[in-house]
Amino acid sequence: MMINSRIMNINIWFVGLIMLFAMTHGRGIDSEFRVKAVSLGGWLVTEGWMKPSLFDAIPNKDFLDGTGLQFKSVTTGKYLCAESGGGTILVANRTSASSWETFRLWRLNEETFRFRVFNKQFVGLDEIKAVAVTNSSTESETFHIVKQNDNSTLVRIKASNGYYLQAKSEELVTVDVSEVRGWEDNDPTVFELTIAARLQGDFQIANGYGPTKAAQVMKEHWSTFIVEEDFKFISSNGLNAVRIPVGWWIASDPTPPWPYVGGSLHSLDSAFSWAQKYGLKIIIDLHAAPGSQNGFQHSSTRDGSQEWGKSDENIQQTVDVISFLTARYAKSPSLYAIELLNEPLSPGVTLEILNKYYKAGYDVVRKHSTTAYVVMSNRLGPSEHKELFPLANGFTRSVIDVHYYNIFDDSFENMTAQQNIDFIYNNRSSDLSFITTSNGPLTFVGEWVSDWRVKNATKEDFQRFGKAQIDVFGRATFGWAYWAFKNANLHWSLEWMINNGYIKL
Known about the structure:
Blueprint: H1 2-25, E1 35-39, E2 68-73, E3 79-82, E4 88-94, E5 103-107, E6 113-116, E7 122-126, E8 129-134, E9 143-147, E10 154-159, E11 164-167, E12 173-177, E13 191-197, H2 202-209, H3 211-225, H4 228-236, E14 241-247, H5 264-278, E15 281-288, H6 312-329, E16 335-339, H7 351-368, E17 373-377, H8 389-392, E18 398-403, H9 417-434, E19 442-448, H10 459-473, E20 479-483, H11 494-499
Helix pairs in contact: 1-9, 2-3, 4-5, 6-7, 9-10
């Protein structure tokens, strides 16, 4: 333990020395100010896990856009699958289920759906055979999912022509049964349903409720989830900034494209008024880009697909959003930074595409503001920690955003509280040191949380874990932001953590 303590102290001293040099010699840093922020996640960008009650009243809420369904034939005992992942017939011959055996829903209304397969084709009909060959949703078949009852996992799949899908054999799946009765285990129209994946983001809530009800639900949420009193609380508890995730559709407010509803821009305007009143800075974070930059629900993907950046038009659309936001708030004394994109995912987003966008995004921010910092998020997935440096080194007031969590990787599964704390002082110190240079971009730990996989952790354990992260991440030359201010999962709620003494800033 004595050796570990010495190693920790050396690491902290070394990181601190580097970062002090970076602060005084870096590109445009105000050495008197470093961000101590909290992200207002779950507010203007929806994540169902943060506030599950938002989705409670959606009709047939088990079947939202992007829900992954697996169907096991009761007659063959095998799973339904698009052969080769798509592009040919459907079969019922798979002994286990994974991505190829998962059908993603596109919800047309609470009873009618399209099915999308692994290779992104949609399920349709070739005379009576079930196939997955078209890339156009409008040319594909629509289906109803008929449950035995609400408590059963047995279902039938009924096409819009009135016929039911059946597994005649492992190799022959047809849609040619017009009348059914009972739910016997020798009926080829009966399948056992497993819900393998769910998405609960902005697309799901908007399309799930429909435009009228969604507008009511979201207006109520935006006006109550974060209020002026929260900004007062944040300011009075040692924080000096907020990071506000937004979706790309905010730039089209009050009439955003389908299925989104207007109103989030008004809330962002209010945030700037409250921030100015209570002396807080704002980092606007483009959390959801058109087409989804990572396929996660927080980027408002419809079905888990990652389509952002695949065309010049898409990149330009995203640049236009950044231009809109910067121009709107450039004169506000509270605008501190624009984050061009949250958590792009490799390899779907290539470094070439990302550099192209970041260059264009930086230029458009500078068109409207010479003082706002420009934050560029590192890629998730396979990537190099310093891969953005050649680009960012040519920018002024540029920032690299990294996200450090001791929770998502399975390597943390069996770590003790002390091992997690040691990991922060050793590994995270080293990670941060590696990307902190004297003449390069500033560093920002843009997301972290004082939660982990440790079972039966004490309040003191949480306090020590939080302190370790504040000690280390506080040496980032731009600063840090906790995820998030409010959350149904209590340790992810900084408000709850402060009020209950689990973290001290």
